[in-house]
Structures are given as structure tokens and as C-alpha cells.
Amino acid sequence: MVGPRVRFAPSPSGYLHIGGARTALFNWLWARRHGGKFIIRIEDTDQDRSSIESVRAILDALEWLGLDWDEGPEVGGPHEPYFQSERRDAYARAVETLIGSGHAYRCYCSKEELDAARAALKAKDAKAQFRYPGTCRDRTDRPDKPFVVRFKSPTEGATDFSDLVFGTVSTPNASQQDFVLVRPNGYPLYNLSCVVDDHEMGITTVARGRDHIGNTPQQVMLYRAFGWDVPELAHLPMMLSAKGDKLSKRHAAVSVREYRERGYTPNAVLNYLARFGWSYGDQEIFEKAELVELFDWKRVGKSDGKFDENKFADVAFEHLKEERLTSAEHYAAWIAPFLEGAGIRPDRELLEKALPLVRPRARTLAEAANALDFFFRETPELDDKAKKKFLTPEAVPYLQALRTVLGDSPAWEEEPLERRFREWVESEGLKMKQVAQPLRVALTGRTASPGLFEVMLVLGRDKTLERLEGAIRVASGG
RNA sequence: GGCCCCAUCGUCUAGCGGUUAGGACAUCGGCCUCUCACGCCGGUAACACGAGUUCGAAUCUCGUUGGGGUCACCA
User: DSSP string spanning A325-360?
Assistant: First the structure.
């Protein structure tokens, strides 16, 4: 048995939305799980809203997420082209078939006329719902006027389809109308191009957001009119805002790019998205490979969810914290742009030594870069408050003593350093806290940092003593 | 309003006739501690409501309520 052919079909009218990314992910997982094909198709039949920049942005985001596609833009494939704007011949042929078989007809009513009729109806009764009255349904003449092509919807009975997530969905045909298939300019509308392409591209499973469930009956009618098999359908519960309405940029960061810029790793994004509407017992954290192995439509829930930035941030954190999830190599590669953004050209060896120290302290790569930049600077950036509070003249004798105590340590390793430090603190009748903070500020420039001794170890003897010297100068009022 | 769909802690969810209704995030205590974190221990917190079916319902059925989606010559 050949694997499933699934697709992600964005319309290029902006960035890749986090909800769209989830749709792409579920499709991708299904394809990878069963050795099928993941196809990208660009739905750019609305020329006014589509842009090549958006195509680029969406593809970039998918690439960043690691949702690689087997057919589509850039990679091509047996069903080229993968841009609907370039597939008009296919739609034209399909529509002629439909007209020929009596399933569709040309409608010469102008948009203005219908808009006026709709407005008039709404004026009389705001709750009334306007339906195309069927004016041109049975007309046989072909006036020399612009026309749209409409589908001749049945008026009785119901249209049913079976959904992998929602089960059987039944819609009365009386609630449908003769929907438009082709604009006067010859461009197809969504339902037509979608059905024609899904069929021609051999799509076996159509998975998309639940907001599409409403036009699925229309698409099913089309499949039947064409005499084609209806593919498997899977609708995903909606991702709503924290308030419970449609998730948009008013509520939160909703583009994949924004999370990338915040320093979320791709696998963390995938993890959060996967767990949104899908679950696997009590497990919260998944590697990408695990998701591929475990994903199943049976475990996709039906109820909509609310996007939760806290949970998302926690998943991001979990991925950065665990080496199992983010290897040192990946961490180093991913954090590099953030360090470079802060004017640091990270030394790879130093970086890999410093990484374990920030892992439990950074929820994002941006935080991580900020938390360990002091390792890489010639001298740490000295926080003003920290300086005022801890690099005082009173601290000078302590720092001087520490320079000797630490500098004389035979071995530059955590354990002996800490032992010497503590012995000295005790012999002086001091408390750890009294000297730890000045030393921390001396070494890191700030009051919060990883443990002193691990910092010293990563810094090495020379830099540690050098920074101590520098701090003594500052504290002495230099 | 028509049509479609949904309904377990604040949030994501487990549960698929018999559980002290579990986990995670968030939140609140505590422990650890050189700071900040991590970690660990513990607390608060949910089956929307009403009828059925059943010896027994969070689980099945119906209704009510609530929420969402969609009603274009957008996708």
C-alpha cells in the first residue's frame, strides 16, 4: 500500500500563522508516519491578496520548522505547477465538464445587482439570509455579458461526509445555494480549485482547520458531480485566542517568525503545536521523531482550544533545558544569531562549555544569549546598580584577598576552588553571602548569574583573576 | 438569525460504565541555596445544567444552557 498524499495549501496573503503551522504539521506528521508525500500548494487565485513575498515568508517558516515537502514550490514534482494561479487551464476544463453535464451554469447577474438585493433584504430583516435566487439557473441563451459560473446545488436531501476527527457530518442541502465556481475574469474560486487540485494531485487525505468544515459539503457535491472519489477528510479543532475568539495578532504573537525571533527553537514550536488538539496520554514533551512515530488522527480531539503563551514558553524552555531535546551542537548553532545580534562573535569552544550553565536559566535563545554574554566580552558589562551596591570600597579588601586565595589554588577546578573559598570565608568569620555577591559582580557584571565556581571554571584562571583585578580598580573608586 | 461543530481544574489535556477524576502550564506554600534559576515536596482548582438508560454514569441517549465556526464574484 502506498502512503498517504497530504497537502498544506496556504494562501499567500501574509506570514505563516501559528494555526496554519499546526495544520501543516499534522499533515506532515501523517505523511512521514506512513511514508507518504507531503505536498505544498500555493492557493493564490485571489490576485489582489496574494504576494510573492508572502510565498517566501511562508516557505521560509516551513523550512525553519523542518517541515520539508516532497512536492511543491522549489522542489517541483509530478503535478506541477503548484501555484493555482498557473493552473487555470485545469479549472477551465473542469468547469466545462460541469456545464456540459448540467451541474453548473453561467450566471449573468452582476455583483452589483446581487449586492443590492442582499442589502435590500438585510435592510428589511437584518437576520434574514440572502441566497442567490437562481435567476440564471435555467437560462439557455448566452448574452454577450460578463458571467460567473455557478454550481447547481441540490435543493433537497442532505450532503454527508465522514471526517477522521468529527465523524459523520450532515448538512441539509436546503441550507446551501448555487455557489460561484468561476469569477468573471476566469479565475476559479476556492471550492473549485481546491477540489480539482486535490483530485489531480492525488491527495488522499485532506486535513485542514475546522473553519473549513462549512464548505466541505460544497466540495463533496463537486467531487460527486465530477464522478470523483472524495478523499479522506480531517478537520482540526480551532486554535483560539486566550479570550476564546479567533486568534489574531491583536491577542498575541501569531506568526511563526515572531517566535523564531523570540528565540523559540523549531522543535519546541512543533512540540507545542502538536500537543494542541492532539495528545498521547500524559506525555507533554516530544521529540520530533517521536511525534512522527506516535501521531494518529484517533488521538486528535474535537474541542477547540485556547492558545496559551505560558504553556508555549514552558515547552520552549523544556527543549532548551534538556540536552536530549536540544543537543549542544544545535543549541550553539541556534543561539549564534542571537549572540551576533548583541555584537558577540562566539568562540565555539567557550560556548559549549558555557551552555550547560544557561540551560536551566533561559526560556528562550534570546534569554540565553543575554545570560551568557559576559563570558564572551573582553570585560563584562557592569550593571550600574550592581556596581553601586557591591563594588564598594568596603569590598576591596575581600576582593583582594580572594584574588590571592583563588589565584593560589593549585587546581583550577570547581571543587578545590569552592573548598578554598569556603575555608577562607570561615577563617575570616564571614558569611558566604557577604563575599559571593561582590565576587559575582566582579566576574559577571551582574547580581544574578550561574554558580560562582562553575563560572570561574568556564572563564579560566587568567580571565577570572583579570576580572577580579578590574573590579578591584572599580571598587577602589578608579 | 440559518447551518455545522464543541463542552473535564484559569489553560492544554488523560479518561473510552465501577478511578480518592490523573498529568502538565499557571498560581500559592515549603525545601535546597553564593545570586538567579533548575530541582524536589505539598496546597488551591474541573466533569455546565436537567431528564433518561443502567445495579452503577465524566463516560451512552435526549433536552437546556453556554461557547466557537461559517453563511462572498476571500481562502
Answer: TS-HHHHHHHHHHHHHHTT----HHHHHHHHHHHGG
Same domain, A247 and A306: yes
Using one digit for the tens of pLDDT, what is the confidence trace for A177-228?
999 999 999 999 999 999 999 999 999 999 999 999 999 999 999 999 999 9
| In a shared domain, residues A232 and A250 | no
CB A198, CB A192: distance < 8 Å = no
Domain that holds residue A72: 5-83+241-316
- Estimate in Å the CA A161 to C1' B53 gap, whole number: 29
pTM over the 0.80 mark:
yes
pLDDT band at A55 (very low <50, low <70, confident <90, very high): very high
Average pLDDT over all residues of chain A? 95
Instruction: Answer whether residue A1 shows pLDDT above 70.
Output: no
| Residues A200 and A265 placed together within one structural domain of the fold | no
Nucleotide minimizing C1' to CA distance for residue A418: B34
Nearest nt to the A43 alpha carbon by C1':
B75
A178 and A100 both lie in a single domain: yes
Residues A23 and A155 in one domain: no
Distance A292 CA to B23 C1' (A): 22
Q: Taking a C-beta distance cutoff of 8 angstroms, is the pair A135, A109 a contact? A: yes
A43 neighbors A68 (Cβ within 8 angstroms): no
ipTM: 0.96
Helix (H, G, I), strand (E, B) or coil at A367: helix
Instruction: Flag whether A61 is in a domain.
Output: yes
Domain boundary among A267, A283, A316: A316
Binning chain A into helix, strand and coil, the percentages to the nearest 5 are 50, 10, 35
Chain B bases closer than 7 A to any CB of the protein: 1-8, 10-15, 22-26, 33-39, 67-75
Using DSSP's 3-state secondary structure scheme, residue A159 falls into: strand
**Residue A396: CA count within 13 A, CB half-sphere:** 10
Q: Are A316 and A253 in contact (CB under 8 A)?
A: no
Q: Which residues of A are catalytic?
A: 249
